[in-house]
C-alpha cells in the first residue's frame, strides 16, 4: 500500500488526534493541584520562563478562586499564555525547574493550571486590559505569529495604532500552521487571536506578503515604525540523490496540510522515514503514524544525548510506535517509477570535537537500506536570506541583526523572533515581540505608564 489518504475511520482520526494533554475538568481538580505549590521565594519556575510569568502568584490566585486575577497575571507577561500552556516544552522550562523535582516528587502541573485560567478567559472573553488613549502613532507589524501578535498587543495597550500584514488567511503563525494537531487546534488558535484583537487598536490584513504586495519602503512612508516578525522559511534540503522523487515531503508543508485540511484528505505513506530529531520531526512522525502509516522510523545522525527534542516528546513518538535509528544519515533516496521506494543511510560515528562544540558525526563507511514509500524532511528551517539581502539589512546568513533595542540596521525597522534567533520556542517569540515593542515605544518617545492593578471580586470567578 503506497501513499494514500483516508486510511482510517472517522472515529479513528478522532481518537488519534484528541487532546494529548486534557485540561482540568473542574475547579476542584485545579484547586487541589494549585494547593500543592509551596509558592517559592525567588521562584525558579518564574526564572525559567522566557516571558517571566509570575507563576507562584497566578497559582495562588487559582487556589483562592481568583481566576480572573490569575489570567490577568499570565496575560500581563505572555498574551499567548493560553497557547503556550499547550505547546511549551515545560519539562525543560517552568516544570523542569520546579523544586519538587529535587525532592523526587512530581512537579506542579504549571501548564495545566495556566491552561485552566487562560482558557476560561478566552472562552468567556474577559476584558482584562484597557487600551490607553490613542497617541496618533502608527506601527506596521509584518507577520501575525507569536512575535508579531505579542508586539502588537503591547503597542496597542499603550495607545499605538497597529496594522499587521499577514501572508496567510489566519493569524497565529507557527501556533496555527506548524504545531501537531493533537496539541492545539486551529479553532483554539483563532479564538486566541480574536481575544488578542479584542483589545482594540489592532487590524490584520490577511493575504499580504512582504516582498510581493507589501514593500518596506511603503511601510516606512506610511508608518512611524515597523516590526518584522517574519519567522523562517522552508526546510533545509538534504542535498542527496533522489530528493526530487515523488514521496519526499517537507515536514513544514506536511504539518501545514494537516492543519488546513480534514485528516482523511492528507496522503501518507505506509512506511515513512522522518529525517531529523527536533520538535518538528517528532510532530511529523507522530502525526504520520496517527494518520494511518503502518511503520514510521525517525533517522538521526547523532545519539539521543545530542537530540534537539525533549525526552518527553521522544516518548510520545515511542508510545505511538515510531522506531528510531540513531547514528544514521541519508546518503541516497532510491526510486522506482519516479516514486520513493527506499533510502540508503550512512552509519555514522561521533568524533570528539573541540571544547564547547557538539561532537561531529562522520560516516564510518558502512551503510544500511530501509524500504520506505515516503520520506519527510525535518532538518531545520532556513531564514529568508534573499528577502533580507534585497532590503540590505545587516544579517548573519539571513538572520537579521538587531541592537539592544531590537532595531535593525535600517532606522525605524525593528525585528524579533525566529527571523533573528533562527528558530526557538513559541514562548521565546512572544518575549521577543515584547522586547521589540519596548524598543519601538522608546523610539517613538512614548513612556509606558504603570499597569493598573486588576480590581475584581476574587470569589466564584
UniProtKB/TrEMBL annotation:
<feature type="domain" description="4Fe-4S ferredoxin-type">
    <location>
        <begin position="28"/>
        <end position="61"/>
    </location>
</feature>
<dbReference type="GO" id="GO:0051536">
    <property type="term" value="F:iron-sulfur cluster binding"/>
</dbReference>
<dbReference type="InterPro" id="IPR009051">
    <property type="entry name" value="Helical_ferredxn"/>
</dbReference>
<dbReference type="InterPro" id="IPR028261">
    <property type="entry name" value="DPD_II"/>
</dbReference>
<protein>
    <submittedName>
        <fullName>Glutamate synthase (NADPH/NADH) small chain</fullName>
    </submittedName>
</protein>
<dbReference type="InterPro" id="IPR036188">
    <property type="entry name" value="FAD/NAD-bd_sf"/>
</dbReference>
<dbReference type="Pfam" id="PF07992">
    <property type="entry name" value="Pyr_redox_2"/>
</dbReference>
<dbReference type="InterPro" id="IPR017896">
    <property type="entry name" value="4Fe4S_Fe-S-bd"/>
</dbReference>
<dbReference type="GO" id="GO:0016491">
    <property type="term" value="F:oxidoreductase activity"/>
</dbReference>
<dbReference type="InterPro" id="IPR023753">
    <property type="entry name" value="FAD/NAD-binding_dom"/>
</dbReference>
<dbReference type="Pfam" id="PF14691">
    <property type="entry name" value="Fer4_20"/>
</dbReference>
